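Standup notes, protein team

Yesterday: finished cleaning the Dactylosporangium maewongense set.
Today: Transposase IS116/IS110/IS902 C-terminal domain-containing protein structure.
Blockers: none.

Input for Transposase IS116/IS110/IS902 C-terminal domain-containing protein:
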Amino acid sequence: MLVDRRDTLGHARTDAVSRQHHLLLELVPSGAKTFLSAPQARALLNTVRPRDIVGRTRRQLASELIIEIAVIDKKIKAANTHLTELVASTGSTLQQLNGIGPSGAARLLGDIGDIDRFASRDHFASWNGTAPIDASSGDQHRHRLSRTGN
């Protein structure tokens, strides 16, 4: 549940940043870079003083989105801290692997459970869909991954 919550926060942040970027493209003549932090967006927004009602409304909405993104960032940070603590309490070293963060490690541990429930590496590979399946035909020998994996 916590991993799903963290994923939802990530999606909400992406959506808010996208909306903010669209508003800044309309407000700033040269546009805005794609990956803006909340303080960078605030600094950029402070340089804009629209005179018409549409521009002022866009600026107000962009300002509200900056606050929304800052709140989401705090929630993501808290969720990551909580997930890191939970993963550490299991004694897992998954987060030491390159590309595995607290959310990914927690997702793996939650989905897999006790690894000892699998009789062998092959059984685990079959369960998670990474065991190659024979897809040979005639003299051509090849394998593919199972489409029925986890």
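Follow-up from PR in the comments: Residues 28 and 48 are 7 Å apart (CA to CA).
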